[in-house]
Amino acid sequence: MIDFTFTEEQEMFRKAARDFAENQLAPRIAEMEKTGEVNMEVVKALGEAEMMALTIPEAYDGLGLGYTARLIALEEIARVSVATAMMLQVFALGIEPIVQFGNEEQKKKYLPGLAKGDRLATCAVTEPTGGSDPAAGRTIYKKDGDEYIINGRKCFITNSHIADTITVFAKDAENPKAFTTFIVEKGMQGFKPTHVEHKVGMRGCNTGELSFENCRVPRENIIGVEGKGLRVAMSAIGDVGRGGMVGCSLGLHTACLEEAIKFANERILYGKPIIKLQTIQNKIAEMKIDLEAGRLLGYRAASTQDKGQRSSNEFAVAKYYTTEAAQRAAKMSADIHGGYGCMEEFAVTRYLRDSFVLGPSAGTSDIMKVIVARWAIS
Amino acid sequence: MLNIVVCVKAVPEPKEAGKIRIDPATGNLMRSDVPLVLNPLDKNAMEAALGLKRNMDAHVTVISMGPPAAGDIVKECLALGADRGILLSDRAFGGADAFATAYTLARGIEKTGAFDVVFCGMSSSDGATEWVGPEMATFLNVPVVTMVNKIVEFDGSLWKVKAKVENGYRLMQVKLPAVFTVTIDLNTPKTLSFSGIIKARKKEIIQWTALDLGVGEESLGLKGSPTIVADMEAMESKREATIITGTREEKAQMLLQKLVGAGVVS
Amino acid sequence: MKNARGPVWVIAEQIDCRILDVSLQLIGQARKLAKQLGSDIEVILLGNKIEHQAGQLFAAGAGIIYLGNNPELTFYQPEAYTEIIVTLARKKQPDIMLMGSTPMGKELAPLIAARLETGLTAHCIDLLINDNNILEQKIPAYGGLISIICPEKRPQMATIAKGVFPEPAMDNSRTGEIIPLDVPDNLPGRIKTLEVVQQEPEGVQLESASIVVAGGAGAGDREGWNEISDLAKTLNAALGCTRPAVDEGWAELDTMIGQSGKMIAPELYIGVGLSGEQQHMVGSVGAEIMVAINNDPRASVFEQVDYGIIDDCREFIPVLIDTIKEYQGKKVSC
């Protein structure tokens, strides 16, 4: 019926991603935590390891791998650094609309650079009016000859200050029911990143605001059809965004479980390691069961996406489950650490802080439930 | 074109290898589910070959003698950049000591055709006799340098390499074809890349048995091994540890006290 | 009729005309084996301007010395050394051949064994003659001890590290026959040692130090390693390591203690952040007092030492260093 095993090639992808994460990312975490800023050596290393090229077609210098390979890579990277996994997953949010809806000129112009990591992407949908309600956004565009003038503000945008290729979602100033997705490039007049957010977790991943003040964008930069941009934007934050959060969550969850077991093996109380105590084993079992379930949900959704089938609902379920489970796992792991669970030098406290950022990214848990309810009822 | 062969071995993951122990009750090995990985020093051997391939016209064949599961590490070497993979696998190869292993590998290398250079790790993390490289070279009738930590000249067929000696090196001049066993200092192995894994899809792994090598059973495996294991016994420690407890400061004080008392610290 | 069994051979090694300690130690052990077998003990030494070294070999117990004394043999030359020994072995049919587990020995021994199509064992920590007059070669493995034998092929060959066997009782009055060896003139000429460059090692040497601090994977990173190094400096101890530390690049292969490295027997051994892997511990069991510091209470090292401290070495070592410095300070001021 169903084969739940990974192929030999997928196991090699996992090994390559794990080796990359342990060799290139682990040594740089302390600095990322300290400054909260993106480490450009990390970005360079990601590019050299072909991590941005995974889902870009081979015709445009990508690796042409599917979403299962992407999930494997994100999972392994998140296990070492959720901040880096988040940054990487959001690159894909900017890339996906071009891959799915871009015309040949756009693909040739942007994708090769994005694959190499010479160009960095992001996607700008969320506004102060809410990301959960994109149609209520107030960023507007007005046609002016062969150009479009964009005005507005986007917030909570990951990679805001490092991206140079941004897919921006805006509403037609004259028709509130029409939306268009544009490619805006760093340096375009009227566009600039403004405020930098200081997140409590995922430090080393840049989040901030983008400002558009009479930003002029040429007609060639429209992705897809003018006025039909909602579909384009959703393709990004839908499956790809949710899938990315699944990867971040599974990796973090694995790290929480591994740290908990390691600590419980070393901590002696009543003359023996606390891992022998039933109450500790209870927590470990819960973490393990959640992880097993989350992995199956995530890889099922990715596998559906790889087949070219609709997978938004499956990803909504997986995103909800894995982000919530990772938050529970981080708390349980911290509890197992006892007093050490509030000391900064212990990795579990970083996991706790990172877990807070999982929930609201790429759609809140409440929004996921709306989608899942709709699926169940239909 | 430079024809390079790299000999690799699948070994139990070194970080978990301590789990494989002799059962004090039976005197036999207690097997454990320790995964097989590429012998760490073989990564340096692979990088030596791939480094040359990046800079000149070269063909890299990777060869390994082992159980069918060793095929995974041959695949991994193809993903790292080798052009062709060969797995020598046959029940008849089982139980081989270094002599029989070297003999089998030598026959396998001969079957691949003409070669210029053979690289292998200087030792494997399990076993670690360091004999296979030199014995293989003898069976192939070519010179060998062990513990190579720098390749100084490699143009043409006369190479100069440095090999490690105590607190220094010896500089060797070698006429190819030759065997080189390498140390961890020779290079920094590159990690697996996704594109390398994709390229490996088109590369083939050939499996050869004793029949394919055309070698009689008396030269292979246990039968072809001059040495055998006569006995295994678990070792008992002659010491019983006193675990010192207390706060960190107390433990340090107590330890120092004991050592001063024993006269080993003054 | 004389014993049909061949002699016990030791291939001695010299560097800069100085005989290595391991060679003398092996001659000492070979004497014991030869006595049990009722065989002769013969030593081969190759080099240049080494005529004066023969006395030392006789004093250690050699009965006959085969001496290859020639400018062409100044450095270890793989072809010449192998050919000389193989040719002589085919003539004299030794029963046992022993060599030090040195960089030369580890290359030369397998070259000879492959040519003679015989067995060769590595990392022996003991050699015995069993009831069948066969050499039992003991090596540590899998947490225990395995006995290797070479039942049929001859010679039975083994390499042994310095420090496994004790210094032999030297008797300067002993003497014997010296048989000269020629350099063969039919060598293939495909490999040549051009030069050997060695420096004086720095710091306290492992094999002679009275205190040795050994660090392992538990150091965590270079910062942690530096702390362990500081502990060694504070105690004026030699700093050794396990294989993981070499793999991580914190320490040199020359300072690795164990089966494939150095055998030590200091007064005090302190193992920091190492799990007690047999390959390492077998190199340090000669110590008088052994201490281990490790944060894993289940680590097997705690079954092999006299004193154990269960703690994160990165936290404990600085405290230990302070405690020792305080003590040293008090002593000076008294």
What's the quick description here?
The complex is a heterotrimer of chains A (378), B (266) and C (334). Chain A has 378 residues and is an alpha+beta fold. In chain A, 52% of the residues lie in helices and 17% in strands.
Relative strand content of chain B: 25-35%
The CATH H-level homologous superfamily of the largest domain in chain C: HUPs
Mean pLDDT of chain C: 92
Spatial sequence of strands, sheet with the most strands of chain B: 11-10-9-12-8-1-6-7-13
- Number of DSSP helices of chain C? 8
Give start-end ranges of low-pLDDT stretches of chain C.
none
Task: Pick out the low-confidence regions of chain B.
Answer: none
What are the key terms here?
heterotrimer; B: 266 residues; alpha/beta; Rossmann fold; nine-stranded mixed sheet; two-stranded antiparallel sheet; 7 helices; 15 strands; 28% helix; 30% strand; globular; C: 334 residues; 2 domains; seven-stranded parallel sheet; five-stranded parallel sheet; 8 helices; 18 strands
3D architecture notes:
The complex is a heterotrimer of chains A (378), B (266) and C (334). Chain A is an alpha+beta fold. Chain A has helices at 8-25, 29-35, 40-48, 67-80, 82-101, 104-116, 229-266, 278-306, 312-336, 347-358, 365-377; strands at residues 121-124, 140-144, 147-158, 165-172, 175-185, 191-196, 207-218, 222-223, 268-269, 272-273. Chain A folds into 3 domains: 8-120, Acyl-CoA dehydrogenase/oxidase, N-terminal domain (Butyryl-Coa Dehydrogenase, subunit A, domain 1), CATH 1.10.540; 122-228, Butyryl-CoA Dehydrogenase, subunit A, domain 2 (Beta Barrel); 231-377, Butyryl-CoA Dehydrogenase, subunit A, domain 3, CATH 1.20.140. Chain A is 52% helix and 17% strand. In chain A, the strands form 2 sheets. In chain A, strands 1, 2, 3, 4, 5, 6, 7 and 8 form an 8-stranded mixed beta sheet that branches. In chain A, strand 2 (140-144) and strand 3 form a beta hairpin. In chain A, helix 9 (312-336) packs antiparallel against helix 10 (347-358). In chain A, 52% of the residues are buried. Chain B is of the alpha/beta class. Chain B has one domain (2-219): HUPs (Rossmann fold, 3-Layer(aba) Sandwich). Helix content of chain B is 28%, strand content 30%. Chain B has helices at 40-55, 71-80, 98-112, 132-140, 194-199, 210-213, 248-261; strands at residues 2-8, 10-12, 21-22, 29-30, 36-38, 58-65, 84-88, 117-121, 144-153, 158-165, 168-175, 178-182, 205-208, 228-234, 242-243. A 9-stranded mixed beta sheet of chain B has the order 11-10-9-12-8-1-6-7-13. In chain B, strands 2-5 form a two-stranded antiparallel ribbon. Chain C folds into 2 domains: 8-181, 3-Layer(aba) Sandwich (Rossmann fold); 211-333, Rossmann fold, CATH 3.40.50.1220. The mean pLDDT of chain C is 92. Chains B and C meet through strand 3, helix 3, helix 4, strand 9 and strand 10 of B and helix 4, strand 7, strand 9, strand 10 and strand 13 of C.
